[in-house]
Specification:
Layout (H helix, E strand, L loop, with lengths): L7 E5 H12 L7 E5 L1 H6 L2 H11 L3 E4 L2 H9 L6 E3 L7 H6 L3 E4 L2 H13 L5 E6 L14 H9 L4 E7 L11 H19 L7 E3 L3 H6 L7 E4 L10 H4 L6 E6 L2 E5 L4 E2 L5 E2 L4 E6 L17 E4 L2 E6 L7 E4 L10 E5 L5 H7 L4 H6 L6 E5 L1
Parallel strand pairs: 1-19, 2-3, 2-9, 3-4, 4-5, 5-6, 6-7, 7-8
Antiparallel strand pairs: 1-10, 10-18, 11-14, 12-13, 14-17, 15-16, 16-17
Helix pairs in contact: 1-3
Length: 368
C-alpha cells in the first residue's frame, strides 16, 4: 500500500478475523463468544468491526453506554447487545432498540422495571452483575435475597444471565485472588439459579481470563482487547495481529544546531546538530503530552525514533538524525510492526488508553 498522504488509522479486518479465530479456538465449541465493541471498538471503527464480527458468527456484543448500542442497531446490527453501564435516563431508548441492560444495583433494577412496565414489556431480558472483588459495579452476595424479592415484584423483566468481572486475570501473581473471585461467582450463581424460575446463563472471563483461567468459561466469555491484537502477555501478543495501525506523514524537516530548542516552552534543547521532523498529529488526535520528551517512540523507515519536546495540539516533532527520509514519508505511531503495548509502556500507560484515545477526527481506512 502507498504511503498515506495524511494521518490515518488503518483498520485491518483480516487481522480481526485472525484474532477472533485464535480466541475462539481457546474455548469450548459450545461456549458462546461476546465481542466487546465499546469505545468505538477500542478506538478503531465500531460499525466496521461489528459488521465483520457479525459475519463471523459472534453470539453477543457489549458496549458501555446505551448510545453506543443505538448506533449499532440503527446501522443494522441484529446480534444481541449487552449495555454494561446503562443510565436510567436512557432506558426508554434502550428498550426501543432491543438492547439488554446490565443491572448492577437495586436502584437500577427498580428503575428499569418501571421503564419496562411503562413500555408495556414482559420478560424483557436483563443481565445481573455481581461484584466479586473488582469493587466497581455490581450487587454483592448479601444482596441476593433482596434481588430475588425485587424481581418477583414484576413480570416486566427476565434475568437472562448472571455475570461478574475479574480484577487481575492478566497477573498470574494474583492467581489466588482470581480463583477466589471465581469461587465467589460460583457460590453466587448457584444460590441465585436455585431461586430463579428459569436457568440463566453465566459469564465471567475477559481476554486474559480466557487465556489464563479457561476452566471458568461457564456459558460465555467476553473478549475485548484480544480481538484488537493485544493480550497483556507478550507470548500471546506474538500470536495476535494488531487491528489498528496509526500512520502519518512527515510535514517538514528541520536542521537545528547546538543550543536550539524545539516546541512549546523549549521542551527539547539540542546538545549538537540534529535533524528533526514535524508530523501532522498531536494531543487533539489522541497522542497525549505524556508521549513527549522521548517518552513516545515512532517508527520511520523501519527505525524507532523518539518524540521530542512537548506534544502540540495538532503536531509533534521527532528526531530523525541519521535517517535518510523526506517530507511526505510515512511514519507509524503504533500498529503492525510497532506494538501499541510497547509505545504505551514508554509513557507508563497501557495499550487500552492509547488505542481508545485516538480522536474521531483521524480518518479511518478500512482494509477488508
Amino acid at each position: 500500500m502507498a504511503d498515506p498522504q495524511e494521518t490515518v488509522l488503518e483498520i485491518d479486518l483480516q487481522a480481526l478475523e485472525h484474532n477472533y479465530r485464535y480466541l475462539r479456538a481457546r474455548i469450548h465449541p459450545k461456549t458462546n463468544f461476546l465481542a466487546v465493541v465499546k469505545a468505538f471498538a477500542y478506538g478503531s471503527d465500531t460499525l466496521a468491526i461489528a459488521r465483520k464480527l457479525e459475519t463471523l458468527g459472534v453470539d453477543y456484543f457489549a458496549v458501555a453506554y446505551t448510545r453506543e448500542g443505538v448506533v449499532l442497531r440503527d446501522h443494522g446490527i441484529k446480534t444481541p447487545i449487552l449495555v454494561l453501564h446503562p443510565q436510567p435516563v436512557n432506558f426508554p431508548q434502550l428498550i426501543a432498540r432491543c438492547l439488554e441492560p446490565s443491572i448492577y444495583s437495586i436502584g437500577i433494577l427498580k428503575a428499569f422495571q418501571k421503564a419496562a412496565q411503562a413500555a408495556g414489556q414482559t420478560d424483557y431480558p436483563v443481565h445481573l452483575k455481581f461484584n466479586t472483588g473488582l469493587n466497581r459495579l455490581g450487587f454483592r452476595e448479601n444482596d441476593i435475597e433482596r434481588v430475588i424479592r425485587q424481581c418477583e415484584e414484576s413480570n416486566s423483566i427476565k434475568v437472562l444471565s448472571l455475570f461478574s468481572h475479574l480484577a487481575a486475570s492478566d497477573d498470574l501473581h494474583e492467581s489466588q485472588f482470581t480463583k477466589a473471585q471465581i469461587e465467589s461467582f460460583s457460590a453466587i450463581t448457584k444460590a441465585l439459579s436455585e431461586r430463579l424460575p428459569h436457568k440463566p446463563f453465566l459469564h465471567l472471563l475477559n481476554t486474559s481470563g480466557v487465556l489464563n483461567f479457561p476452566e471458568a468459561q461457564y456459558d460465555m466469555v467476553r473478549c475485548g482487547i484480544g480481538l484488537y491484537g493485544y493480550s497483556n502477555n507478550p507470548n500471546v501478543d506474538a500470536e495476535l495481529k494488531p487491528v489498528a495501525t496509526l500512520k502519518t506523514v512527515i510535514s517538514q524537516i528541520h536542521e537545528i544546531g547546538p543550543g536550539e530548542s524545539v516546541g512549546y516552552n523549549r521542551g527539547y534543547k539540542a546538545l549538537d546538530k540534529r535533524t528533526i521532523a514535524t508530523l501532522p498529529i498531536g494531543h487533539a488526535d489522541g497522542i497525549g503530552r505524556i508521549y513527549g520528551n522521548a517518552s513516545g517512540i515512532v517508527k520511520v523507515k523501519g527505525r524507532q525514533v523518539p518524540i521530542i519536546g512537548n506534544v502540540c495540539m495538532d503536531m509533534l516533532m521527532i528526531d530523525i538524525t541519521g535517517i535518510s527520509c523526506n517530507e511526505g514519508d510515512e511514519v507509524i505511531l503504533f500498529g503492525k510492526g510497532h506494538s501499541a503495548e510497547e509505545v504505551a509502556a514508554g509513557a507508563k500507560t497501557i495499550s487500552y488508553e492509547l488505542l481508545t484515545g485516538i480522536s474521531q477526527r483521524v480518518q479511518r481506512n478500512i482494509l477488508s
